[in-house]
Specification:
Order of helices and strands: HHHHHHH
Number of strands: 0
Structural class: mainly alpha
Strand content: under 5%
Distance between the termini: 18 Å
């Protein structure tokens, strides 16, 4: 008989908050923040993926929403979903660098200082995803 792992209320709360953040960001990609997210997509990404910026934003929004939901509804896959979330945060980092380097305003990121600070948030998001999904 397999013994269930003890629950860690702090990790559970952190995982739930991360799920909410992912779903909210995903919905933002698909709705009111869509234009702001397009600004962060580098031109080379459209060439590499052979598509347009809007498609990249929409697909990434769907992926974010699904990963956020998966954190809540797939407890047996928690670790794998956490690694996938961390990988997503790593994958979008070049877009954050592009956004900072181009200096274009987007909702909530309307200064060079805010765009630069956003770069340092990314490793924290990766750590959050991995820590909150660890057993």
């Amino acid at each position: 008989m397999t013994r269930a792992a003890p629950r860690d209320p702090l990790r559970t709360a952190a995982r739930s908050a991360l799920a909410a953040l992912l779903v909210a960001a995903g919905v933002g990609h698909l709705t009111v923040l869509r234009g702001g997210f397009r600004i962060a997509v580098p031109d080379w990404a459209t060439r590499l993926l052979r598509t347009d910026k809007d498609t990249i934003v929409v697909v990434s929004g769907v992926v974010e929403s699904l990963l956020g939901a998966a954190l809540l509804v797939l407890p047996r896959e928690r670790r794998r979903v956490g690694v996938a979330v961390a990988a997503l945060f790593v994958a979008v980092f070049p877009g954050n660098v592009h956004h900072w380097r181009t200096g274009r305003d987007a909702p909530g990121l309307d200064s060079d200082a805010k765009r630069f600070a956003r770069l340092f948030l990314q490793p924290l998001l990766v750590a959050w995803a991995l820590w909150s999904t660890r057993r």
